[in-house]
Amino acid sequence: MSTPTVIVTGASGGMGSAAVRQLVERGANVLAVDRDEKGLERVAEECEKGDGELGTAVADVGTTRDVEAFVAGAVERWGGLDGIFNIAGIGTGEFKPLADVSNETYDEVMRVNARSVWLGMKYALPHLVARGGGAIVNTGSHLAWHAAPTFSAYCASKHAVIGMTKAVALEYGPYNIRANVVCPSAMDTAMGQEAAEGIAPEDPQLGWKILIDQSANGRVGHAEESAAVGVWLLLDAPQHISGIIVPVDGAQSAK
Ligand SMILES: NC(=O)c1ccc[n+]([C@@H]2O[C@H](COP(=O)([O-])OP(=O)(O)OC[C@H]3O[C@@H](n4cnc5c(N)ncnc54)[C@H](O)[C@@H]3O)[C@@H](O)[C@H]2O)c1
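Above: query sequence and nicotinamide-adenine-dinucleotide SMILES. Below: predicted holo structure tokens.
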């Protein structure tokens, strides 16, 4: 591959901004997408000295029009597309058993976590096919293939990500397109903090301890670690690696 062109969503967040920094350092052309404009400005400042070229797009990843527009924008700017790293996501904000979670919360979590991945792949795929191949990396979670009480809507959205990624890996393998899922467990990000507060509202430190105790190495993940796995899957992984999930979880899923 000459200079790769990739899209990263959730680029203002913990894992997304780490992925953008790593990709720009590697010399890639990166379109960084997020709904948080200030966050994108911060990421752009951090990447000023990188080798790659950075563009930004403020967008809602769950909205068809927005996704079509940012994919088209990347293709127009750099003449094609080699990959997309779908990272944007939200927690439920409602840590309750299923019957007590609002339907609105379910719909919004599915929209932002699952529909966004559907749309990102749908509009990127024709350009990857036109390029003769490419890579898709989607972000699942430990809860994309396991479950936890009070996380039903989030689990639903992330399990969907694995299902659609595997289908795409099968459908587009003949076009030299790989599709894989990186599955972090708890990370040291804003979303990690939200989970800690949701698990133990009276004592978020206890929430963090519960999250930490799930790993064999006595800590939560660093956003840079999950980002690095995604960057590897995008740029470096052997062509035969497709349709897999890669946990980044301190052996949590070995239990
Ligand atoms: N942090 C964790 O503990 C953890 C664990 C497992 C999986 N994950 C997954 O990893 C990914 C990254 O999480 P993070 O910890 O970096 O979270 P984060 O909250 O730091 O970042 C998420 C980013 O997504 C953006 N975003 C949310 N909704 C959007 C929308 N509709 N349109 C555009 N952008 C939107 C936010 O603005 C934010 O910048 C998510 O998919 C998350 O579900 C996180």
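The longest helix spans residues 103-131.
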